[in-house]
Design goal:
Shape: globular
Helix content: under 10%
Number of strands: 11
Order of helices and strands: EEEEEEEEEEE
Largest sheet: 7 strands, mixed
Radius of gyration: 13 Å
Structural class: mainly beta
Length: 117
């Protein structure tokens, strides 16, 4: 059974950093692109970052970011550990949202990120 479990959310001041982690199981992780989405109440879920599969134990393929996070967020993956990460630096109040790990039509349960002074 496919499972995605996020962790690493929390409360941080503007300008701070957080690192989100997603542990994947139930499928051949290295064969699939993985993404991070976020959602705030009343708005549609939006794509934050995507990392394609590059094969190998630690490889990664093409990476894409939403314009709003370029230069601040970094997505990475570890195919040997079935993990995908989102390093978030220079956080802004508008980054406050529930962040979801994604593969295709599957989403994890989400982790709350709150940026507030």
């Amino acid at each position: 059974q496919l499972k995605l479990v996020e962790s690493g959310g929390g409360v941080v001041q503007p300008g701070g950093s957080l690192r989100l982690s997603c542990e994947a199981s139930g499928f051949t992780f290295r064969n699939y692109a993985m993404s991070w989405y976020r959602q705030v109440p009343g708005k549609e879920r939006e794509l934050v970052a995507e990392i394609y599969s590059g094969g190998g134990s630690g490889g990664a393929g093409t990476i894409k970011y939403a314009d709003s996070v370029k230069g601040r967020f970094t997505i990475s993956r570890d195919n040997a550990k079935n993990m995908v990460y989102l390093q978030m630096n220079g956080l802004k109040p508008e980054d406050t949202a529930v962040y979801y790990c994604n593969r295709g039509s599957w989403f994890g349960q989400g982790t709350q990120v709150t940026v507030s002074s």
